[in-house]
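Morning run. Coffee first, then this:
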Amino acid sequence: MRELINSYKPEMLWSDGDWEAPSDYWRSPEFLAWLYNDSPVKDSVVVNDRWGSDTLCKHGDTYTCQDRYNPGTLQQHKWENAMTIDKSTWGFNRASNLDDYMTAQELIDEIVSTVSCGGNIVINVGPAKDGTINPIFQDRLNEVGKWLKVNGEAIYSTKPWDNCQNDTATSDVWYTVNKNGADVYVMMLRWPKNGVLELGCPELTKTSQVMMVGLPDVQLNATRESNVLRIMLPDKALAPTNWGSVIKITNFKVL
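And here it is:
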């Protein structure tokens, strides 16, 4: 491990296979003391929590707690969701069938709900023995890439909305806000059948604008009815992506 650090100077060190014995057995305390105090990356390195059977979800810069950890709410400690596209294995399994793989929609659901709650997401792909990537993995990653190409501004360089991560009126809606907290991103994972999105968390101001990311020239109408903000969506055929759309509300306020 020290050779790895000295040779490659990684910014992230992700330990695994910790469950067989406690941290003292692996000599994790000694190694981490060196890593944080004397190693060449002591001022920048970040580690996870898998350093022994006694450290999971207790010690580390980021908590992974368990595979596919996704609490659905803000956490006090930095955390990440480590998951794999093939739901049955972390490696490559030629016997896997189509139902074993997460769909593009499921992957985007996982990304959105994780980022909305302040988590980092780790998406594993198991290569074949010759290092090639199975076409179904490529397809899933390409679909996620297409979605992020349009909607990435709601994911990258954003932060959780402290007041509301998951909408109170529509469960398939998650939120992030931009760096200065003035604009909110409404990540709508399912298109409502009646074409009207009902939101329980944000409120408009006199200067608010409501638009769909990827459709910059289309302004959306919104009205307040009781405690629900109703947004009239454009024709679904205009949706810029297949796997959920993002609405940006500028200069919003909290209900």
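The CA atoms of residues 88 and 100 lie 6 Å apart. Good start to the day.
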